[in-house]
Amino acid sequence: MKKKHNLGAAIGLAALLATAMVPAVQAEDLAIPVGSQADRSAISLPANGMSQASVRQRWGNPLDIQGPVGQPPISQWHYSDFVVYFERDLVMHAVVKRPKH
Predict the structure, then answer these.
(1) How far apart are alpha carbons 52 and 61 in whole angstroms?
(2) Closest by Cα among 10, 1, 84 to 47
(3) Contact 39/96 with Cβ under 8 angstroms?
(4) Residue 41 phi, psi (nearest 5)
(5) Does residue 100 or residue 38 have the better pLDDT?
(6) Which comes out higher in pLDDT, residue 98 or 100?
(7) What is the pTM of this model?
(8) Cα(4)–Cα(13) distance, integer angstroms
């Protein structure tokens, strides 16, 4: 009986020491100040579903075109204040560029 008691105490002590050596795990929150987020309401952007021809007619030629890549083909048109993402010939999203400080 005494051997079982000593074994239980030894296991308990080993478990206590093992948990004492494990560092505490902490999560960090990432907060982006509202002032550094781009304001979509301050700029006119292409709407989802617009054709490339309509975007070119309304906003002119882009400064840079990347793609198309992948399947379905995705391309990016870069303007000074925003980037337009096309799937084939149609706008799937427009993103305002962050202001440079």
Answers:
(1) 10
(2) 84
(3) yes
(4) -75, -15
(5) 100
(6) 98
(7) 0.60
(8) 14
Please answer whether residues 86 and 99 qualify as being in contact, where contact means their C-beta atoms are separated by less than 8 angstroms: no
Q: For the chain, how many helices (H) and strands (E)?
A: 2, 4
pLDDT of residue 36: 47
Residues with Cβ < 8 Å from 19, sequence gap 6 or more? none
Q: Which residue in the block uniquely carries the two structure tokens 């990347």?
A: 66
Q: What are the tens digits of pLDDT across the range 45-96?
A: 999 999 999 999 999 999 999 999 999 999 999 999 999 999 999 999 999 9
Edge-first strand order for the sheet with 82-87 is: 64-69, 74-78, 82-87, 90-96
Pairing of strands 74-78, 64-69: antiparallel
